[in-house]
Amino acid sequence: MDRRQYQEYVEHFNNKRYDRVTGYFAPDITVEYYDAGQMDKTPARTLHGAAEFAANYKALHAHTREVIELGDFWTDGKLLFAELWTEFHTFKDTPKDFHWKRKKGDVVVMTNWVLYNMEGNKMKRIRIAHFRNHDPGEAKFK
């Protein structure tokens, strides 16, 4: 996967085309991360498979608009690294049973570093590392 192909993946994600996003995945994909930089408040999560990934993001996007923008990018064919500017714009209070709490109008802006293990040009393992939070006033995608 080259930068252009990865940018297409980002566009599918930003436009909630989950079936297109998961088309980049190996059948046994795992996604490991902390929710929205909440390392001190929530346990790490691991999603297994495309269906679990899509269900997780559909639940999030029911109340929060998430936009990612690609910064630095590197790949050697087996590993892929992406620096992602990530914004969360909450347009409806999160449900009481949701794993993190946000109120309507909350904005979270962060940089995440993402490492992908690639297999046959498909994403097999995704590890999302939170690098830093930014001032919500720096949001680009209001």
What does it look like?
A 6-stranded mixed beta sheet has the order 2-1-6-5-4-3, covered by helices on one side. The protein has one domain: Nuclear Transport Factor 2, Chain: A (Roll). The longest helix is centred in the middle third of the chain and has 13 residues, at about 50-60. With about 140 residues, the protein is α+β, with helices and mostly antiparallel strands. The protein is globular, with a radius of gyration of 15 Å. It is built from 3 helices and 6 strands; from the N terminus they run H-H-E-E-H-E-E-E-E.
Features:
44% strand; alpha+beta; Nuclear Transport Factor 2, Chain: A; 3 helices; 6 strands; 142 residues; 21% helix; six-stranded mixed sheet
What composes the largest sheet?
Answer: 6 strands, mixed
- The unreliable regions are none
Q: At CATH's second level, what is the architecture? A: Roll
Count the strands? 6
Work out the strand percent.
Answer: 35-45%
CATH first level: Alpha Beta
Helical content stands at: 10-25%
Instruction: Please give the alpha-carbon distance between the first and last residues.
Output: 30 Å
Residue-averaged pLDDT: 93
Give the class from helix and strand content and strand pairing: alpha+beta
Number of domains: 1
Spatial shape: globular
Placed side by side, the strands forming the largest sheet appear as 2-1-6-5-4-3
Count of DSSP H/I helices: 3
Series of secondary-structure elements, N-terminal to C-terminal:
HHEEHEEEE
CATH topology: Nuclear Transport Factor 2, Chain: A
